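TOKENISED FOLD:
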Amino acid sequence: MTVKPPAARSAVPGPGRLGLVEPTAADELRQLGWVDAESIELLWSLSRAANADLALRTLVRIKDGLDEGWRELDQALRKDKSLRGRLFALVGASSAFGDHLAADPIGWKLLDGTALPTKDEATAALLEAVGATLDEGATEGSLTYRATLTGPEAVVALRKSYKDQLMLLAAADLAATVENEPVVPYQTVGHQLSDLADAALTAALAVAIATVCPEGSCPIRLAVIAMGKCGARELNYVSDVDVVFVAEPADATASRVAGEMMRIGTSAFFEVDAALRPEGKRGELVRSLESHITYYKRWAKTWEFQALLKARPMTGDMELGRQYSEAMSSMVWIASEREDFVPEVQAMRRRVEEMVPPELRERELKLGRGSLRDVEFAVQLLQLVHGRADSSLHVQSTVDALTALAAGGYVGRDDAANLTASYEFLRLLEHRLQLQKLKRTHTLPPPDDEEALRWLARAAHMRPDGRLDSLGVLRAEIKRNSHRIRRLHAKLFYRPLLESVARMDKEALVLGPEAAVRQLAALGYTAPEHALGHLTALTSGASRKGRIQALLLPTLLESLADTPDPDAGLLAYRRLSDALVDQTWFLRLLRDEAAVAERLMTVLGSSAYLPDLLIKAPDVIRLFADSPSGPRLVEPKPEDVARGILTASGRHSDPNRAVAAARSLRRHELARIASADILGMLDVPAVCKALSSVWAAVLNASLSAVIKASVTELGTEAPASFSVIGMGRLGGGELGYGSDADVLFVCEPREGVDETVAVKWANSIADKVRKLLGAPSTDPPLEVDTGLRPEGRNGPMVRTLESYDAYYAKWAQAWEIQALLRAHPVAGDPELGLRFLHMIDKTRYPEGGVSDAAVREIRRIKARVDSERLPRGADPATHTKLGRGGLADIEWTVQLLQLRHADKIESLHNTSTLETLDAIGAAELLSEGDVELLRDAWITATKARNCLVLVRGKPTDQLPGPGRVLAAVAQVAGYGDDAGEFLDNYLRITRRAKAVVERVFGGE
């Protein structure tokens, strides 16, 4: 903690009171001669240094180096508070500059003055260090010089001169932390550092010209274009300097001069990086102006135009640099009209975020959430969006751009001011961290390193505020500014839009309709006029709901912008808001639970399947919140859900009302399961199990209601017991969103009841159940398919147990036996269902396995299915069901192994594909690698098939070609914006699985 002396105090303070904690401090003070009353002012100034011990230790090193010259410095420090403030602040905040002064102690005299050097003065000093004069062939206005000093000697001279100039700025920047010196504004620091970089590379170019062209004038015109932070004149103390080279002619000499300049600059000053040139590091280092123009017209990507926002000529042939800037400017401001503008910008932003390790995201000043990059990215995007129509936005620095955006009404004035303040605060911390050791860093010290954080607080001029010490103030400011950036990042894009449609602030500048449409288009809305209409409807009127919507929408729209279909998501949100207009909890929940709002937008912007379900089952939205034990969306267990459906429907005697109750709960469950799936909370097996359980429960509820009504009507007990046997995916517990329910109906006459009567009654029950479930509805369909019954669609709808037994014993075909492998009771009389299973076991698990003839028949049928059932025009490589390595391939292979080995291996008596694969692996019928390939393919194809339904809202098995739908499927499947990776992964996995299928199923 800094100790401030009272107005009158004559006693010399001890080291502890000065904030000195090193045991050698007292001896070091004596070495300096600062132990008497006349040194009190010096000592209190020393105590205010960021690290008083470091400052004292460095002063001793300087004294040792000066020898007799120490007296002059000592007297100067006693007389000149400004010098004292600059020197003590510098050596207390930067060990690197302390080392620099210790190596050349007389350098303290450079600090004996308050004026910062101008760009011309800095350039002159650096040129003088290498004896440079204007090159004979330089054109008027060119900054092309020729040095007399080259080689390692030139690098040493430039390094010393550059660090001297940098030290002057650092000392002035830090002085306010020790003495009451004026604070150097952030923009001034950035301008000074950028001017110094220009001067440094002007000198480096002079050395390069002398090296490459030792005799005569240099025969080329070379312009060096500053990019990035240097181009915007907002450079850090330690940063790469991004450059692009333009030359006439762009020949080997030009490339050698440019390469030598980069080498010298990197050795003497900072990393000189030309990676932003056309084609990046693979491209030519130097291009002609015409070559640059051609590249940007034909091949440049969106991020390259974004980088050009900050381009400016910095040294070399300035006229050629001006021509380059003019040529590029005309292309930069139409970049937002490019077809791929939005996805490229979003992809680039996501890639930047992914670069930061999760454990560093809260400490990253540059790339984390609420960081410098959030501000810069948002500002640049708004410049690109509106800059074509408004030339006032053609500025390069972030702060200037924010000011221009506010003046033009594209950003609220208060928001711009607050965002600027937060941006400058984070840049201040970044500068202080870099000054400490002159190392490039953007990472705050760990939260538990209080010593490092306390140093940073003092170096950043954080003073106790009465409640908190300097460390507490620093922590509070970091948290406040980071949160403010995150909040304003959303408002930056959307608040002006909402002010335009809601006119909440009559005095504020607001976006005009054209600007609002332009901004929405740049944020990913393909129909921005419609989106603007939705915003108008949501915020219209002076009602409280309209005001709450206006407050919520910036955050909601930001979340929507990251989804595959923001247009559909916004429309769905409007429909949902209209449907819940009388439900006060809805907007309150979105306002109070940020996670709920973000998840809801993700779901609405990703799926055509879910909006209608959520409108009819809005209580599911409450489950988007988290409970103490985890996500509430995944808390219900399938068996509890099934029990609830049966209980709710059982309260009604009318079958229609009972089925309506079951449908309502099914709707709720489908919305819950699909939401959890899209949000990545459920894996594929869990989704399939939950969907199968819901389907079985609805079927059971419907059957119970129909039988109950029939018994009431008959006035006696049911003439037969009745059971529903699930087949296919329903029997295996592996239903997808678009699956039908394959079933068999079986009955058993009661004792004393004629079989004909019993079967007739059972047929009427089955027919009513099918009609009830298949009645027209806007819900996802409930189709009951009995096509797998004996004799197919030509056979009776319902058979008795004895009839099934007789049929399968005498006439069962290979495909019917195969279908029985997935038979499992799902509804009705459980005892009858169990008897059915025991009855068919001898058929589906035949002793000795199926015959060779049956195997050949199964293979023949599969080949016919592959050739005849694949839809016309379908791509067999990406058809999830019938394609190569798709679901049919995996399931038929598993079922063939069951038919051949289940009589000997009881663990193969399983209807689930995945569980049977586990059993196959455990029995070593296939290698572990083969089993894993088949499992991966089945899960991958099922996931893709489910995602297709979620995205498109209807069943489909064919993956689409490149485009928005495939991108949406990839994003829902968890691949972010990389549809190519999703498709490559799908093709790779299914291709490998197909090789196993051909070997195992095909008998190769």
Remarks:
- The mean pLDDT is 90.
- The longest strand covers residues 741-749.
- The first helix runs from residue 25 to 32.
